[in-house]
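FIELD: query
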Amino acid sequence: MNRQDKIKKLIDLREEAKLGGGKKKIEGQHAKGKLTARERIEILLDEGSFEEYDMFVTHRCRDFGLEKKKILGDGVITGHGTIDGRVVYVYSQDFTVLGGSLSETFAGKICKIMDQAMKVGAPVIGINDSGGARIQEGVQSLAGYADIFQRNILASGVIPQISAIFGPCAGGAVYSPALTDVIIMSEKTSYMFVTGPKVTKKVTGETISTEDLGGADIHSSKSGVAHFRADDEEEGLLIIRKLLEYLPQNNLEDPPVTECTDPIDRREDALNEIIPELSNQSYDVKDIIYTIVDNQEFLELHRHYAKNIVVGFAKFNGMPVGIVANQPNYLAGVLDIAASIKAARFVRFCDAFNVPLVTLVDVPGFLPGSSQEYGGIIVHGAKLLFAYGEATVPKVTVTLRKSYGGAHDVMSCKQLRGDINYAWPSAEIAVMGPQGAVEIIEGKKIAEIEDDEERQKFIKQKEDEYVDKFANPYEAARYGFIDDVIEPRNSRFRIVRALQTLMTKKDTNPPKKHSNIPL
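FIELD: result
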């Protein structure tokens, strides 16, 4: 074979590898409304930046006739490229090759790029579309999953790990995405579950569809497994590109600061009127978020899950920050189990990757009731408390209105190493609301008043006294628990200045193997 023949063979093999399971299988993928593994990479990465590894790898199995079904690449495409010029590593599972099933060599390809990503300090993006473990390989495929899991665990908090679910992801396969930082699912083409509908029916007798058991809608709204629910795969891939704008390459770097065209001293008079006069009236905290951040851009995570708290990324003067905000528009912004877990996870994510935290507080307390207590609200609420207290990134807190009881402490208070704590004049910082407080403090006197009109007059008088004393930020400010009471319309400028001041902040935790967060 001469030189030209060798080059032609290389070109032919490359073309063969790029076809994956073949044209018919690719057509089948498109018929399901799904992109191919290579099409996904093309959309995700900067044009022409992808460098592929292990294109010529094939499986080693010789059982059950599999030796006759060797396809170049063995069902997963791996390599590195760039997103907005920044290096990322990526693997994309190819459902056209043996249903995207994971073999020993398939896992080895993923492990190789994860190891390299750790060495160079770059994010890993996994695109999942797989029928699960390759049954013909038995324990070797199970070992392959465990090899990936171990790398997910070691990479956690070191490099950003993002998972896109664009097809089936079931059984043990779900645990690799579950170990990563962010999960994106696509509507109608993706699902995740540990046990599928058939086994569920056989074991429990429950009849349920694939979509209702583990579809994108379920995991983005009910379980909270998915952080984003995309209308289609292309939107999901663009979300990943957007997400990386707020994250550093690794835990030793700071997030990328970009040029800001939005004036930092922009005043918004509407903020002076946004809090209702009556404290039990609701408003949408997102209206405040969009008003104070750069160019009204806010990338919300878990939008459909635990809506009583809002989390997401934005920028202040080009600096990426994580925002945590109680949402009075849903369950009055109360903290419950789901909200506590959602916010705690996000706070720890930001802290791991040096993203400052801005917290907007309007919380009446924790949700009461037996279902919450039986569900472990004590432990789950402690997660958020722990996350804020452990975080060493810059923390700026603005109390908008209510900040009552234990929830006041949990929401990045001064005693949890809050760096700069502001309050609006509408802030109410107390152990509880006036009605409950008066019932406890004056309960005996109230019971002694026989005349109903006199009783109501007395209650109103005592509630007004309580409001005068605590339904304002000045009592907390008197003790230095609030650094300043600010005019709402100046919030953007004050937050930007606070973040600028804290850019050189250094905070440390005691030496330890690791913390024992209440799980």
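FIELD: remark
The chain has a mean pLDDT of 95.
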